[in-house]
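Just curious. Protein, please.
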Amino acid sequence: MKDMLDTRNHVLRRNIGNSMFLGFAGYSKGTSRLKFSEVVEKMLDKHITKNLTVCCMPVSLGRKELEEKIQAKYKPEFNRKGLGKSS
């Protein structure tokens, strides 16, 4: 889960940041190659730490298969590639 704290490694983090801080002073779009500005990174860390909960459980299939099943069932708002591309 350490990659949740690196914008370049996690599309969920980028989508949350691009959605929440788009018009914010000091905003620069986060991508798989570039982090957000330092100010936005700190606010995003604070938001994720305060508002997201991580749960773990053993499963009998691979991570990718499980992720695909969860995404198909729940259609999570921020965990999709291509969000936040308007800027």
Helices lie at 11-20, 38-51, 63-74. The radius of gyration is 14 Å. The chain has a mean pLDDT of 82. The chain has one domain: 2-74.
